[in-house]
Amino acid sequence: MDAMVRELSYAQAIQEAMAIAMDMDERVFLMGEDIGVYGGAFQVTGDLVERYGTERVIDTPISELGGAGVAVGAALTGMRPIFEFQFSDFATLAMEQIVNQAAKMRFMLGGEVSVPVVMRFPAGSGTGAAAQHSQSLEAWLGHVPGLKVIQPATPYDAKGMLLAAVADPDPVMIFEHKLLYKMKGPVPEGYYTVPIDKADIRREGRDLTIVATSIMVQKALDAAATLEAEGIDVEVVDLRTIRPMDKQTVIDSVKKTSRLMCVYEAVKTLGIGAEVSAMIAESEAFDYLDAPIVRLGGAETPIPYNPELEKATVPQVPDIISAARDLVKGVR
Amino acid sequence: MAGASKAVADSRANLPFVYRQYSAEQLKQVLYKMYLIRRFEEGAEESYTRGLIHGTMHLSIGQEASAMGICMPLGEDDQITSTHRGHGHCIAKGAEVKRMFAEFFGKTTGYCKGRGGSMHIADVAKGNLGANGIVGGGIPIAVGAALSSKMMKTGKVVVSFFGDGANNEGAFHEALNMAAVWKLPVIFVCENNGYGMSTSTARSTAVKNIADRAAAYSMPGVIVNGNIFSEVAEASYKAVERARAGEGPTLIESKTYRHRGHSKSDRNRYRTKEEIEDWMSNRDPITLFENELREFGFIDDKGIEAIRSEVAQEIADGIEFAKASPSPDVSETGNYVYTEQA
Ligand SMILES: Cc1ncc(C[n+]2csc(CCOP(=O)(O)OP(=O)(O)O)c2C)c(N)n1
Ligand SMILES: [Mg+2]
User: Fold this and answer.
1) Which of A179, B234, B237, B308 could form a disulfide with B17 if both were Cys (CB 3.0 to 4.6 A apart)?
2) Whether pLDDT at A195 is above 70
């Protein structure tokens, strides 16, 4: 049973998961723009078209609304499509099919149908791709009942959560930060799943809970390593799933540390940090808080092209370190 | 507009459109600008390789005659919407390369003050409403600009550039329909370079020619060889006349080819070396135009040499200007999100 564990990149882990899913179930197929011979804009599908053919690795025209809708229709009628958006920003063109159709179909039809579609969204800033190719829109979809929205932060989770998503009977939206694609980490061979409703405590600590998502998990861990030298012991919770959110793990952590900071790349206002903070404020953990909750999120601006400005619009490790320091020391 | 005098015009009666329509000076200026586009993109590419420019970029090398031909009959007040492959459109509509370089270098002197970069290059003062990171994003916007022109009676004509890939977006179809129903002064220019990223039109598009789609929206659909400046300019000229006369939109399909990969990360696995080589050596738009100019006696080798060295100088100066320009301060990250109000 002990599967061989190798170092794979996040992109390779996703590719392996898709190959396993296709090997296990002939209903699984891939759709997206330039995912065939091009290998995907971020080389996630890679050479899968050579192994599975153009019938199962389908290049769509540049038609996000139609393409997403075709995936929804195929899922509704027995297939198991995995649909790749070339950039998460282009979800905006497909919102109709995702929000009005995929998310609500089962409900509107009184449980007569399911829509087991998986959609993958390369997201986030840091590549100099400017305002229309750098957004973090996961909270948009997280607001829609009927969808499940996940943000794996490691190669291990990327593979296991994708396989769980394919097995899930409902639409699962996967946000993959583009800067994670090259990140390496241990990934077991073969089939395994990681549940899509469980947060993960990536580092235990006593002084402060940092709830982070996606690429911010690694940044929070880096910050925690520095803070440890200063005697600040940080617990890092990788939220992993934003809908349905694993509230209990966060509540338990805050009860232990009595301080909460949320770190995420998306625009700060009306985002995941607001949801986590409000959830804690409503919970029994509220009474345990020793300090106001802190949110570190993206600036209230589109992502700029200039690299220095781009960096300044999203939380960086030093920002997390100084905010954590202030929070623990009671500086307001 | 008609640059050629009567006597000169008679002597050119059998030549292609632009040689009848425009003066030698104007045509030399076109050659200058084609070179400017080519050398600008080569300069941008080199600066990227040297780490002076980050992100990515989409080069239009090989498509210069299309940009220049379409913009030839446009006036300074006319407007365009452009694409991710928009450097040529920008220069053809009158932008200065130094401010384009500055934008690519992320500087405050750039057309978008360093916020937009290559993919959002614009020159609003010259009527370029902007490149676009969203395939097809500019098409309805051009229709809106044409609606403004009609409602405000400005007489402006609007050109929407887009690629073959964009014609499969819903926005294309919705926009063409409205433009036709409302008879708006807009020209849809599909620069068909054979591929949307890696996907050939044969694999993505149900019709043989993009221009065939014009029939569905009751507008003329015109196919031109996009690598022959005169052909493109003639089609554009007619479409502009039609638009100004209030007769409504035209769809022009300009068949061309991009020499470079889709973007900086393209390995060109979807097309052959031979195909690329063929377009580069046998159908290069600048070579074709230069040969015609020479053959018809509009320019000699010395004139061509002079243009090339002037262009080289303008490019070198532009890069120096960009390098010497200041970067925006990080304290200004929040600027321009909303309109500043007193
Ligand atoms: C809505 C949307 N979908 C996908 C992309 C990614 N993308 C950028 S350019 C491009 C190809 C566009 O092809 P085409 O319209 O033919 O223009 P070309 O690049 O050939 O000039 C793609 C798929 C995008 N920018 N926007
Ligand atoms: Mg194209």
Assistant:
1) B234
2) yes
